[in-house]
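Anyone else keep sequences and structure tokens together like this?

Example one:
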Amino acid sequence: MTPYLWALLAMLASATFFDGFDLSILGTVAPFVQQQHGLSNAEWGLVNTIIRLGAITSFFILILADRYGRRLLITLTIVGYAIFTGLTALSQTITGFTLCQFAARIFLACEFALALIIIGEEYPTRWRGMGISLLSGVSALGTIAAFLAARHVLTFHPWRTMYLIGLVPLGLIFFFRLGMRETRRFERVRSERGTQSWSDAVAGLWVPFEPRYRARSLLVTLLWNCYHVVTAPAVTFWTIHAARNLGYSPSQYGLVVATAYLFGFLFGAPTAGFLMNRIGRKLACAGYYVCAAVAIFALFWVPRPELWVQMVLMSITIFFFLGASAATNTYATELFPTEIRATGYSWTTNLFGRIGELTTPLAIGVLADSIGIPSAVAIMAIGPVVGAVIVLRYAPETRDKTLEEISLELEPARPSREPRRSRV
């Protein structure tokens, strides 16, 4: 671990910080936006679905990282995110609000993915899992900042103010990132292949679906969908549940979520990195998935309104959510070779892997109008349990292996071309 690698972690931390910050703002303002525009649970679920569709659309930007490099793309994404976040604060209709947040999610999802890819490519083998875990965990700080700010802002100011917070720091982060270098692995690939034509680049988009990569692409896609089934409604629908069913004010539910994410940041992400190095990726990922399902069920089904009870339940939930996220992100960055890592990540994580994230809020919103939010979330809790089974059955163990070793081991065995010898 060189000084530059520690500085690189600091440069990239803003990507995951604002990922948690932006999604959490949506959760804090949900009751206000829903009430202002007279939206039902189903309609609010549709709004969430459209906004999350932006993360899927980020696919078309992220794939460019395998052609133009990681550094250029991640430097530009922060500009797009800042512009559309500011425009969200100026929106006057629910359509404008939704479209601005949709566009902001495009750049934010791309930035988040590139940050993890860069850490995965640059960090040494024994630090790779921990680096990805810590970077994923920084999103908890964004959530903490959003909900702590909401305690004051939503009490004395309009909800739009939440989207103006952080625009100045975004400008400072942009200049800070100018000191970032391209990853050594990508520079090596680019020097070996030379200038790539557009026809070659387009043909390269389909490489993750070739027979030698097809199994790992399907694996990562399934894992992300199982993960998103419970994480997609966690905060967004819990704030509505807390306001309506528990009688919480914005100050109260903001305190609960901020406390939980602080606990998750301090213990969840580091523990995930430790366990992935100690017991392996498979057992750590499967364990976090099962515990996340149990935790989300308890969070919505324990009706006690005491703050300390909800803090404990939410803290446990976020602890396992962050661990599951770190383990899944580790697989998503490790299983593809450098020359197609961004492309493979785009297809499996930002496109097909987000189908569950896209449809779950809408499904919960529709179900909640008839059976209530807790029952609707409980139905979805089966998702990560299925994911745990998939991990134990099909996922490879990548602990203590370099990216090159992983890629070599996952290559399908090729039949020998030597002629068979007669036994006579």
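And example two:
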Amino acid sequence: MASILIYGAVISAVYAMLAVGFTLIFGVARILNLAHGAFYALGAYTVYALTAIFHVPLLPAAVIAVGAVAAFGVLVERVLVRPLRKSQLAVLMITLATGLMVEQVLLLVFGSEARNVPSMVDATFTVAGADISGQRLLALAASFVILGGLWLFMQHTRLGAAILAISQDAEAARYMGIPSDRIYSLVMAISAGTAAAAGVLVAPFQTVIPAMGLLPLVKAFAIVIVGGLGSIPGSILGALLLGYSETIIAFEGSIEWAQIVSVLAVLITLIVRPAGFFGKRAAF
């Protein structure tokens, strides 16, 4: 039981980081970013390249990786998404193309073999009788800090208030003088940065391959469907449900069956409550 609680908390925290970034850009800009998984993969590969090729210490490499991917997210928003924002289908296609392009570039540069990223914490700890690696505990703690910091930013800063205003009524916010284009870029940076941070944190205990962004994208999409598109609390609740469901099934059955949970969760939610737990236009 202790193992399920701890491992479930770790995977739920990582899922929450992915889902919050995914739902944030939808809640503010009303776009579904299918390049979100690519940001996750870029975070893992950037920290790998910095440590293995350029011999940058691990902690600075992690910070640089998150910042670089956040900057790449701003570039994607300004160059590719912004000119097409009026067409949701066009945005879907351009973000999908971006994700596929990133995967192919990673394949060409690094090859198809799995890469190893060193752990920031090498020790193994025993918690309530369950053995867990220090890197997983670090991922859990860092996820809490990042999500907590994001909540404080949204609730207690002027930029956070501007983001909330745009998410509630973009046209009225523009009339009040809020620069919507800058807010969209900022939100894309936050979304890409949180996805990259998730990739950096799990890279030491997950397989780092060019296609590693696909499954997290599916998980994030499943979570926001279950929680409600545009709802950050819904995304966190969905991440907890999905993370613990997968952990229980993996411990009691097999990891292969655990991967089906996200698909079943989406199907059941669409049948029972299509708007998700908190509805499509839920407030942050």
